Structures are given as C-alpha cells and as structure tokens.
C-alpha cells in the first residue's frame, strides 16, 4: 500500500528557509500527481503545490506561495520536496504530502493518500 513520510519541518525565523521531504513507497505506476498541503489550527486545509506526472505534466502553486516555494521530484528515490524560502509567520502550519492516481481528482485537489505531516513554525 502507499506510504508517504514527510520530514524537514522545524521552527525558523521569518525570512528563513526550510526544505521538506516526502519519501514515497508503494506508489502505483499510475500515480498522476503528488501534492503538498498545509493546515493551520482552526483553518481549513490549503493546497500549496501540485506536481503532475501525467498529461502535460507541470507544477502548480497556490498564489500565497508563488515565487517563494518550489516543489520538485526525485524519480530515482521516489521523493518529492518542497523548498520554502522567504518564510512568513502565516506559513506556520502542519504540512502534508499527498498522492493521487486519478487525473480528475488531481485537478480537483482531492487526494486519496496522505502522509502524517510535519510541523513548520515561523516566528
């Protein structure tokens, strides 16, 4: 079965950088996309970035992180990363990695497989 394990969360000062990692195992070859999401206490979950493997491929970002965050994928190690620069206090949240096989669900930002999350705190 699919297993996603995030790491790299930490407490940093505003303006700092972090790189989150998501080690994936058991991913079917039909996986269409992977994504990064975040959720702050009392807030709804927000999609941060999506990396599409199928179709035209590409990476999409939430407006709130464009120009500051970069999502990438290492095919050899089946790991996806989220490089976060110029961090702001409003980036404080639990960050989750997710994977999805369905193109339709990818485009709808609805993912079937989730990691346990890693905490990012910016002060």
Please characterize this protein's 3D structure.
Strands 2, 4, 5, 6, 9, 10 and 11 form a seven-stranded mixed sheet that branches. The chain is built from one helix and eleven strands, in the order E-E-E-E-E-E-E-E-E-H-E-E. It has 123 residues and is mainly beta.
Features:
123 residues; 1 helix; mainly beta
Mean pLDDT: 94
Number of helices: 1
Largest β sheet strand count, sense and barrel closure: 7 strands, mixed
From the helix content, strand content and strand pairing, which structural class follows? mainly beta
Q: Uncertain regions: pLDDT < 50 for 5+ in a row? A: none
Overall 3D shape: globular
Q: Please report the total strand number as a whole number.
A: 11
User: Strand-residue fraction?
Assistant: over 45%
Give the arrangement of secondary structure elements:
Layout: E1 3-7, E2 11-12, E3 18-25, E4 33-39, E5 46-52, E6 58-61, E7 69-74, E8 79-84, E9 93-100, H1 103-107, E10 113-114, E11 118-122
Parallel strand pairs: 2-11
Antiparallel strand pairs: 1-3, 3-8, 4-5, 4-9, 5-6, 7-8, 9-10, 9-11
Quick description:
With 123 residues, this protein is mainly beta.
């Amino acid at each position: 079965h699919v297993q996603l394990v995030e790491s790299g969360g930490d407490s940093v000062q505003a303006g700092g950088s972090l790189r989150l990692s998501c080690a994936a195992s058991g991913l079917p070859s039909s996986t269409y996309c992977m994504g990064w999401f975040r959720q702050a206490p009392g807030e709804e979950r927000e999609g941060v970035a999506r990396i599409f493997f199928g179709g035209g491929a590409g990476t999409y970002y939430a407006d709130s992180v464009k120009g500051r965050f970069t999502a990438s994928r290492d095919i050899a190690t089946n790991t996806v990363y989220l490089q976060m620069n110029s961090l702001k206090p409003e980036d404080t949240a639990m960050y989750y990695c997710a994977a999805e096989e369905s193109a339709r669900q990818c485009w709808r930002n609805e993912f079937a497989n989730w990691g346990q999350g890693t905490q990012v705190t910016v002060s």
